[in-house]
Amino acid sequence: MAKLLVSITNAKNDTDRATVGCVVANASVASGVETVIFLSTEGVRLAQEGYADDIHEEGFAPLKKLLTDFVDAGGNVWVCSPCFKKRGLDENKLVPGATIVGGAKAVEFLTTGAASMSY
Amino acid sequence: MEESKAHLGSEVFYDFGEMSCGELLMAPLKAMRPLPAGTLIEVRSLDPAAPIDIPAWCIMVGHELLMRARGPDNTYYLIRKGGPS
Known about the structure:
heterodimer, A: alpha/beta, Hypothetical Protein Ychn, Chain: A, five-stranded parallel sheet, about 35% helix, about 20% strand, globular, B: alpha+beta, four-stranded mixed sheet, 2 helices
């Protein structure tokens, strides 16, 4: 199966990039591609329960719905561990489907054939 | 998503309106999931990229695109559902 890692490094600092990253990830997982959203730097905030509830870019579905649809369709959300810790976020309040990982997990996915896109 | 009348002789009709990109693929994925393989589905879209995206999506997930019909500002697709997707 084809594999794609969508790297999202933005949250409310750039809701356009955060949203479009999720939209592309949805297109990927809905096309039968094994897909991972990798949240790092500011992007990790999207994994905090409640944070993304008010992000709704014009012309797109609300970000919370995009993430929910992504996970429901079988996508994985990986959250950069040091980025998450640095921001003092609560690992007990992750959105459904999100997993805190180290860089090795992302590197392993990429080196076993995954392509990547970055937002 | 609106379910309405079919135009191309399908068993199921979905109107995805102005949905585009990921939404336009996620919506039919979810809608078609409970349907058995072989079901004829008609999709209507207003998205200008749909004539490129829908055929590509059908190939990736194993559906058969049987027919395309272009209206003045929208396109219709007749799809036979493939495997489990």
